[in-house]
């Protein structure tokens, strides 16, 4: 068969590992021809694609980013492409499409599938917020990077009291912050699912200092929100752009804590270091298995599904289930994390 | 309550993280007193134990090994201890016991539980061969170490053809070798579940060389077995002790391949580097959650159970289920790995 | 002999390795008694010290921070201590003092030495700004951490153009930023020794984008300064505290570039992750050798000197030479780095 | 100018970083054309070369191996090439040659230089055994890998006594073993420069056990030799090939110690993991600086020299000095390491 493959959405360690796996399984085992669509759905829209051979995927297991590129496409252009899905596929000469991407991509994949394009999707997000799968690749790598940072901060033992605020990725969900916070033993974990009381955080830190500890580490998700009206400073004072993604909350929280506690508070903003670089072994294996099963799904004609990890099994789940709801940190997981604060 | 905790069996990254979590949850939340039994069940037998406080577990998240020690105990001494379980517990003044260990420990835990000792167990094995849980802590770290080694070998690009044989842990199961082999992109993966044909391995390597590749990497589990009568050299030629655990198969395989192929073959024996050192973030979180739930199980009176990960949930499973059968690599997982050879 | 040892100044990976080495060499080889002064010179002032045995230093090779603590001491108290140096030493019962610290510590060490206290110093700074030694321990670790961050950023390949600004430590010198920038292949390297023209940086980035590159990475030292009057925004807009150490320049630079280029610019602020955690092998060896030679210097009576690395040799340098001038990045080194932009 | 570049000899992390640096400096700054000779001197002999552009070297900073390949060439063919050096250079159209390699390469480079070929050399060896430079790239990476392995072994804390033998690279010199042994805190360090007494090693281990330590780590260079007649077993018993490079001494030493001590002894053979993979930041910077200075040397006409690090300066040293003698571990360095055993 002639199988198109595309990657869509933001960076995620493991994307290239999926492409590699699709090529290995497709060409070596099924004798497929793999066509790489460039810049996500743009490649489908504009008929930009290139064959991807076994040699093309050498070394991709450890390479971050995506060799196929990825672009954001306006909704109306997607709608147009959906209306012309079968013709676009015919023009590219593909019998099926494997779409690798996040929630938006899965939603688009469903539209294309409903429009008669044979699509199998592979979920991708470092945020781990897709409900239908136990976990997504990229997440473990992000947690690994964040945990290493917290590890290093934990051994700073300067004699004067100090607070470290580590801002981690996660605009809508706190999975990275919760997991890295627990793995690193952060003393405070602030996530979007639970608006925080800045005074309560300050009191926790003071309590630690009273117990003779020299420092405290607060892990905060970029999307974590203070309870309304609890911050002392206007956002404007910090950043005239007001970017949440701009390391905003980490800097603001450090400012606030410094003001309340009268002790130094320093921010660490890991930013995109969490979504680049070499994937962890776990992410490489998950990505490789997803690619393998996506190819098998194509040959079984199981279109309109996406790959999901459940326990140790890879299952095929109807695309409809992908977009039911965002997987947020449930209260009981949050309760667990409090045990290690 | 007064809760005893012990670690038993071989090293496993994450043991200390469980102890830390038990102390945090038990003392901070329930006001328990945690008593650390020394050298596993020996501590129970000989009444050797010490209180473990919040300060005692500082820094344990990243520390390999176990601060409580671990010793092998002869079967008959275990039997004697089981017969005197309640008295021994009374003498130590513990209301419940949290036993952290591998298959043997879970088996012993069941005996003690049947004998009336309030026991909750936490499974531990880097081999990931316990069937009742999706995964055990320590496994991810072992895979991480093994994968890093394969990564480094993959970039050796000397002009003369060469075979690298990486021997990994796993006497009875191939989980570490399969997972690290897939994560690292090994060209051959040999595991105990599937006796290998040395000639077939050699032919695969020759095929790679024919395709112009400069080298091949074979990942082999220490317990992998060649098909009967397929090896050219007697074991005795290699090591008069005949230790399987002695890096035996890695060296032998390199010898054999060198002889068959007439090209250099070099072994890499990672040995205990796979079971020591800093646990990965994933292992720390799993170990921490297990400890948390073990304490909760004690307070719920859910004795005779052990903690297990299923999907994203920690569940309590009857000890009887722990020892039903060894979790080996199923043929379909093996089939997946062939896709990336 | 009875040798006192103290650590002074900010965190630096390798401090504990020096203490360990002093104890190993002193106790095992010379039969010395090592007395650890607490919180740097405060321990001398207040007579706070404890014996440090072979067992006390187990595991210190890989432990960040300092087990002896470190405190800032006001100048007048140092002056008072200098005036009473010999009495303080007598009260502690020490025959000699090994002082481990940065420029300030070496200056103080000289005062104490001139006042008749038998002192040998060990230089310490992650900034590598001490002129009399080729390098100081801690520096290699800071560069390692910073380089890993740049490595991860380099593989982010999102389709829309983006600038990453990585703020690194170095208030007065650019060694960490220059070295990590070269090691990581940063496209712009901004250091305190050379005020930067924000417009020139922006043009360089635009040139990269014109050549089809998807992103640019700017490594900037926390102490790097824009040429006067070249910034578009007031500092006050960013941070009412106006902390340079507050990740200030990284955020500001990202703001400015975003405004000039009209493309996303994101800051990464590594902060104290650069001065904590496990030292690199190189830093451990240098710290160990410094400790070894400091003890030998004491037994040779070579007081008033500090240990320095020159080529592969450890030499003893008069304390007077330590404080002649700050070692800044010379123009020819800067020229080299331009070659890799 | 048209500058040829070749890499010769075994793998060494940083080779690609030198090539990248030569291209960056040569093309971007001097407008040179860089011609990559394939498979070392074979490319010169057989006229196999290809242009290497700025795009060709993207990503090479972190890539192990060499994109130009490397081959061993028989002495007589080298002699023939030397006799025809100027003609071969003319046929390739190169004005100068930058040869990157080990001792053998520097020797060959001198012959070509004496024969009138404008050559500048860059020294390369993970063994760090070239006397004229403080250090060579590749060495720091090898030490990093070896030290991480020792770190992991050090936290194994099984209750029964055990010896770990870590075999490291170094057939003729012990720099890697000495440096990693000191950095990792190995309890025994055995190097080629100093034949070891197996009984003395055993006694040291027993002494450790007597002091209540659970384990001992012996770092041994592959080329370390026991004192004549001190081993209990014939080499033949271990490996009918008798490869020194075959992890021989590590396995043998473990066998011997197990037999003498009557306790488990396990080998770890890191093999080629030490010479592959991502270079450390230090090696990348050194390789980049060497490449930069090699290009400058070409444009200054400083032929017949090679780049060397002395202190923090890169100097040009006459090729004659490269091959005076092997840099072995001097007794005083050895004495230092004993302090930390």
TrEMBL record, chains A, B, C, D:
Gene: pfkA
Keywords of this entry: ATP-binding, Cytoplasm, Glycolysis, Kinase, Magnesium, Metal-binding, Nucleotide-binding, Transferase
Annotated SUPFAM superfamilies: Phosphofructokinase
Name of this chain's protein: ATP-dependent 6-phosphofructokinase
Protein localization: Cytoplasm
Coiled coil location: none
Essential cofactor(s): Mg(2+)
HAMAP family registered for this protein in UniProt: Phosphofructokinase_III
UniProt-annotated site: Important for substrate specificity, residues: 104
